[in-house]
Amino acid sequence: MKRQIPYWLQEKWQSFANAIADLFNIPAAVIMKLDEKELEVYLASDTKSNPFIPGSHRDLAGSYCEAVISSQQIIEIPDATSDPRWVHNAQLNNGLLNYLGYPLNYPDGVPFGSLCVLDHKKRMYTEVEKTILRIFREMIEQDIALVYYYNDKHAELINTIHKQYDMCRNKEENESQTESLISESYISTCYFNELNDIVTTSMEAILSLSRVIQKDHVTTEDIRTYARGIERKSNRLLERIRSIQKAAFNERSRRDDLYHL
Length: 261
Known about the structure:
This protein is α+β, with helices and mostly antiparallel strands. The chain has helices spanning about 5-25, 65-70, 125-170, 175-215, 220-260; strands at about 30-35, 40-45, 55-60, 75, 100-105, 110-120. The radius of gyration is 22 Å and the shape is globular.
């Protein structure tokens, strides 16, 4: 099933791209999405010199991002013009000779695309900059997991409703089956609301980190302190998703047991 990213998440990712471009002082921060044998520019920073246009497509073969997606590794290219592997890369036509990219995946490991930054000049990224980009990558993957989980639960709920409607009609069990449908809808709503609260808390932590980074006298230890806090919140989100999945499984098992009595 094709999973659509909600508009409010796209807005959040856009703010990520803009923040990364500002923090790193680069012309382009981009989220690329794998689209069969092409790459879609899913979102791009609003920087003036950014040649990437959201919604446009580029060849996957031979691109920086193909190396990231196929290897599932972080790829850093300080200067493509002095590297024989990349000297003919299409991005050099735009003068983008510097690249740092991280893979983005669905929770089942299937590639979503990549999060990358590009520059017109040769540079090496600091460990603090790499940590910041990794944190943004993890937040985006958590959002993807939320969409993945919620869309699957929604499809499962619709399927359950259709099946239980047929059971009600064929076996004249309207009263008991209706109660089950109400319970299913209520549980699905509660699960999504709880996940949304946790994601909101994690987003607030990211914004706090961004504000700290922009201070005049920020230290590496300040950034690490906030990064550790975000990591704790991220782990809490993943634990909550797993517990909700377990609760949903137990609820389905309970209803199946009642049906077979």
